[in-house]
Design a protein that fits this description.
Number of strands: 5
Structural class: alpha+beta
Number of helices: 6
Strand order of the largest sheet: 4-3-2-1-5
Radius of gyration: 25 Å
Helix content: 55-70%
Strand content: 5-15%
Length: 218
C-alpha cells in the first residue's frame, strides 16, 4: 500500500517529463525551420559586401551573384550564377559558395529528417539532426572565413578601390547577409546542443509500461 503514493508521484513526474520534452522538441523544430529560411536567404542574397559613399562604383557582392555600377550611366550591371562557376569572380567566392551551399543542404536535410520521428527512435533522430546541424555550423564557419580571401579580385577592386585586398575591404562595407551568416553559426551550434540534449532526454524517459508493472507489483 505504501508503494501507491510513490507510484503516483512517479507517474506524475513521468507525464510532466514527457510533456516538457515534447514542448522543447516542438520549439527546437520551429527554430530549425526558421534556421533553414535564414541559411537559404544567406546563400541566395547578394548582399555580403557592398559599396559606401567613398567607393568608386556602386554595387554589391554575394557568394556567386554580384552587381557593379557603370561609371557612365550609373546603371548596375549584374553577373554571376550558381550554375556557372566561370561567372563567379573569384575562386575563393566559389569555395565559399560550396561550403555555405553544403551547409544549407544539411540544414534542409535536418528538416527532412523530421519525418523519421514517425518511424525511428526519437533519441536517435535527435542525434542524427544534431550531428547534421553541427556539421552545418562548421561548414558555415569555413565559408565565412574563406569568403574574404576573394576580396582582391579585379571586380571587387573595381567597386571598392585599389586599396582593397584579401581580408581588407578598402572603402566597401560588410552587408547584412554576411552578418546574418555569422549569426547563423551561433544558431546552428545552439540548435545542435539542444538536439543532443533532447536525444539524451529521450533515453531517460520511463517506459510506457511503467504503470502496469508497478500495479502488478503492488
Amino acid at each position: 500500500m505504501d508503494l501507491l503514493p510513490a507510484l503516483e508521484a512517479a507517474k506524475i513526474y513521468h507525464t510532466n517529463y514527457v510533456r516538457n520534452s515534447r514542448a522543447i522538441g516542438v520549439m527546437w523544430a520551429v527554430f530549425t525551420i526558421c534556421f533553414v529560411i535564414i541559411t537559404v536567404v544567406v546563400f541566395i542574397q547578394p548582399y555580403w559586401i557592398g559599396d559606401s559613399v567613398n567607393t568608386p562604383q556602386a554595387g554589391y557582392f554575394g557568394l556567386f551573384h554580384y552587381c557593379i555600377g557603370n561609371a557612365l550611366t550609373s546603371e548596375l550591371t549584374c553577373k554571376g550564377s550558381v550554375l556557372d562557376f566561370a561567372s563567379i569572380p573569384s575562386p575563393a567566392f566559389r569555395t565559399a559558395m560550396f561550403f555555405v551551399g553544403t551547409s544549407m543542404l544539411l540544414i534542409v536535410g535536418t528538416m527532412v529528417c523530421f519525418s523519421l520521428f514517425f518511424f525511428c527512435n526519437a533519441g536517435n533522430v535527435y542525434r542524427i539532426c544534431a550531428w547534421m546541424q553541427l556539421a552545418s555550423a562548421v561548414l558555415m564557419v569555413m565559408g565565412c572565413m574563406i569568403y574574404p580571401d576573394g576580396w582582391d579580385s579585379p571586380e571587387v577592386k573595381r567597386m571598392c578601390g585599389q586599396r582593397t585586398d584579401k581580408y581588407s575591404l578598402g572603402n566597401c562595407t560588410v552587408r547584412w547577409a554576411y552578418i546574418l551568416a555569422i549569426i547563423s553559426i551561433l544558431d546552428a551550434l545552439l540548435l545542435a546542443f539542444l538536439s543532443f540534449t533532447l536525444g539524451n532526454r529521450q533515453d531517460k524517459l520511463l517506459p510506457d509500461d511503467f504503470e502496469v508493472e508497478g500495479a502488478g507489483k503492488s
